[in-house]
Amino acid sequence: MNKIKNIQTIAPFLADDFVDLDESIFDTEEYARFLNQNSDRLGIFKKYSFCKLHDSWIIGIKTEKDRFEITLNDFTTFVFANTIIEKYKLPIDPDKISFPLTIEFDGKIEVEYNSVDENGDLRKIDPIDLDEYLYEQITRLDKDCVEIVFQLWKSNLKEDIPGEDIIVIASGKDLTINENQGKAWCETFGHDYDKLYDYFREQFNSDRYVSDQNECEKLIEEFENMTNK
Predict the structure, then answer these.
(1) How confident is the model at residue 24 (pLDDT cuts 50, 70, 90)?
(2) Is the pLDDT of residue 156 over 90?
(3) pLDDT tens by residue, 175-191
(4) What is the pLDDT confidence band of residue 6, given thresholds at 50, 70 and 90?
(5) Is 92 exposed, middle or buried (0-12, 13-18, 19+ CB in 10 A)?
């Protein structure tokens, strides 16, 4: 008989969204050290860890024999683009723009979808369509395997029932991030805002929080003040 998995033991960083906890059971400082120590193995994914993909909506998920992909519309880039559209009154429909980013596992793929009950116990389910990226925790990292526990959201709007958090446990030999936001940016804006986009990416890569409109407005104002000097 298989032992029941519980969110508190397999991914404690995510646990407080599923069960009532008197105090945190996750050491974020230790986790940050773990990410820094393994930055070479994580590659580009490291700069997106610790919730930087939160609220990104899911464009698609693809599972093949030796590959698993989650493609997202990068929420932070979308918010920044929408701020520019509003500020400069550009004739662009925000509902029709997307800034894709793909998380890709290759080799020795294992993928498992789970619902989570009120006690934090996981129940394996069949793969389903998912709508939004919430959080993740890297739970295994060595030369042969990268495992990530993803917390994703299913809206259930068409079924007219409450949405729910779904846990997807994915692993593979290698992990890569395909960043296509820059290409999509040029397709959306041409080259009129290239320098502003470069400044935005510089701030994003510095771990500055730029994922809401107020912060994006501040960033644009900073850039304008610098370039007008």
Answers:
(1) confident
(2) no
(3) 999 999 999 999 999 99
(4) very high
(5) middle
DSSP bridge pairs for 204 = none
Q: Say if residues 148 and 171 touch (Cβ distance below 8 Å).
A: yes
Closest listed residue to residue 151, CA positions, set 34, 42, 51: 51
C-alpha 214/C-alpha 199 separation (Å) is: 16
How confident is residue 208, by pLDDT bands cut at 50, 70 and 90?
A: confident
Q: By the 8 A CB rule, do 130 and 61 touch?
A: yes
Find the angle CA(166)-CA(172)-CA(176) to the nearest 5 degrees: 90
Helix, strand and coil in the chain, % to nearest 5: 35, 30, 35
Q: Please report the beta strands in the chain, taking only residues with DSSP state E, as ranges in sequence order.
A: 57-64, 67-73, 100-106, 110-116, 122-125, 132-141, 146-154, 164-172, 174-179
Residue that has been written with the tokens 């993740």 in this structure: 136
Dig out the tokens for 191 from the structure.
């080259």
